[in-house]
Amino acid sequence: xxxxxxxxxxxxxxxxxxxxxxxxLSIEEGELFGLLGxxxxxxxxxxxxxxxxxxxTEGGARxxxxxxxxxxxxxxxxxxxxxxxxxxxxxxxxxEYLHFVGKIRKLDNIESRCDKWFRxxxxxxxxxxxxxxxxxxxxxxxxxxxxxxxxxxxAFIDEPLINLDPIIQRTVxxxxxxxxxxxxxxxxxxxxxxxxxxxxxxxxxxxKGRLLHDGPIxxxxxxxxxxxxxxLKLIKEEG
Amino acid sequence: MPMxxxxxxxxxWRLHTNxxxxxxFAFFPLLIGIGTFVASIFLPYLETIMxxxxxxxxxxxxxxxxxxxxxxxxLFGREVMNRRFGQASLIAYSSRSLPVSERTIFFNFFIKxxxxxxxxxxxxxxxxxxxxxxxxxxxxxxxxxxxxTLIFSFLIGLSIVFFLSTLYAHSSKLLIxxxxxxxxxxxxxxxxxxxxxxxxxxxxxxxxxxxLRKLLLSxxxxxxxxxxxxxxxxxxxxxxxxxxxxxxxxxxxxLDFSPHAYYIAKDFLDLKRSEGGLGKxxxxxxxxxxxxxxxxxxFLDLIPTISVIMIFSIFLGIVxxxxxxxxxxxxxxxxxxxxxxxxxxxxxSKIISFMLISIVSLIILIFAAVGTNQLVYFIPALCSxxxxxxxxxxxxxxxxxxxxxxxxxxxxxxxxxxxxxxxLLFVFTIVSxxxxxxxxxxxxxxxxxxxxxxxxxxxxxxxxxxSF
Lengths: 239, 468
What we know:
The complex is a heterodimer.
Chain A: E1 3-14, E2 17-28, E3 32-36, H1 43-50, E4 58-63, E5 66-67, H2 72-78, E6 79-82, H3 94-104, H4 110-120, H5 136-148, E7 154-158, H6 166-181, E8 185-190, H7 193-199, E9 202-207, E10 210-216, H8 217-222, H9 227-238
Parallel strand pairs in A: 3-8, 3-9, 6-7, 7-8
Antiparallel strand pairs in A: 1-2, 1-4, 4-5, 9-10
Chain B: H1 3-20, H2 22-41, H3 43-46, H4 52-69, H5 73-76, H6 102-132, H7 140-170, H8 172-192, H9 202-208, H10 212-232, H11 248-254, H12 261-273, H13 279-300, H14 308-320, H15 323-327, H16 343-371, H17 378-400, H18 404-407, H19 411-434, H20 445-461
Helix pairs in contact in B: 1-2, 1-6, 2-6, 2-19, 4-7, 4-13, 6-7, 7-8, 7-9, 7-10, 9-10, 11-12, 12-16, 13-14, 14-16, 14-17, 16-17, 16-20, 17-19, 17-20
């Protein structure tokens, strides 16, 4: 399997704060990589740097062979992103928003793509509602749809299951598993350990900007360790 | 000071200072004051075309218009509270989680905004004038009185539009009836009772002939419309519809002359569907322009050497450039950050949206030229309007990108903007008086605008977006 995500010495300073500190990692095609960490540990900053939304202080990343520093827009063309805070434009309906994203991504068959997502995530009855009037869960569904509407090979998803009801959570988990089964790659950031344990093929643990662990989830399962115990021990040792 | 108001003031201060530092924000009113001081020093030179009395009269009416341009609180309801700061979490949203009514929150927000406008704009302007009076042989006591009456003028404009916009929020028909009735009364007064409409403003009359009656009249004009507006304010603006058909493809198709048609379509849907709808353009743009036209027409009619349409075209150009501010209020770049979009793409689409809305300004200019029988000056006025509007727009874009309403309060940025725009306005005004036809060559400056906009694309594409 070839590496589709390569991160080298990625560092981000906000003044005196080192939000991300010299992180390097490689992710292969077909992996569902879960980046775990406490609140404020640097997960979102990592995703933002890897997708060219913010510039790193040092280091760099290549996504599908594209240097994110040189061509961040091309990286965002190739991948799908669910940002941490869902904020679709207030005065477009959810259908218009997906249409808008489809136009930005220069897609064909936009309507059938929209239909697919409204059906899959069961929010057909919300397609004509303004984004500002959507519930948080429906907004999350919309943001999930926009991230996958162009059938990307890689998706960066930041806490994608929060606010979703258990039925849709199951649908999303199944979709993600099918996605990686078809050769897609997911970079998944969360602090909900049960979800990571259930669906990730590999996990990384980050705290205070430093990557403390990087390895297959199977390693933990083989040693009969619970992810929660492992995570808490790691953070405590570091703390 | 009530706790909510105090906290809101602190919050507004921190929003600005977090973005560009306390010093740059604190310098803003100082800069306005210094600018007014310098401009006031040159006032005696204007006496060849306008008396001091006329200048002060004009200043009072300009303050009314300034108040009017920002007074459409009634129209925006809850939205007025987030139009400048997008999705930032403010105390303005506290009523959703705390036991405080939305009306109370809005009342405090209204007072806070007035305090901020007075501190940032009104006081610095008036104090700049007061400090200049020893150098221009105007009595300092009179200047201090002018300070007070100018603030009254600002508040009168603000409260009148607050009232009218609240009325509009309830019934646009009621507003039209009231406006027609008011216009009829004004026409009647001018035609049949030979009343000088320019002296009817109580705050101005108070300045020239101070009396308790005029003071009370001024205060009533401020308090009564404001109180009525706050009582009848629609905090939750009723939406005509909760659901909308997908208009984006159809609208984009109509705009397909531009490669950014869907961004432009989004701009128009934002304007149409946001609270207050197109009323925003009426109250924040058309209404002040219409009044400016009336005042300029009345004032400059007294000065035959000045062509009203030429001066109006300059004013129209600079006010039109503010449409860009309105267009940038509905979406922050955060909404595009995770998509394959550059800042320059969004800016390009805003420029085209701006040009389309500017057609309204162009129609106003045509009507003004026909109405005043000054068609002979129409082409130079058109050149002047287009050049000023696009030049100012290019500078706004260069200095503030997609955040004009926030970044203009950075003293450094505002100073740079004024330094690049004010000399042009001055030159255009002088040339308009001396030889309006010389402005036929002014569109050459559009080359500068194009260059500046191109530089802006480079500058803002590598810029790290603002976050709160």
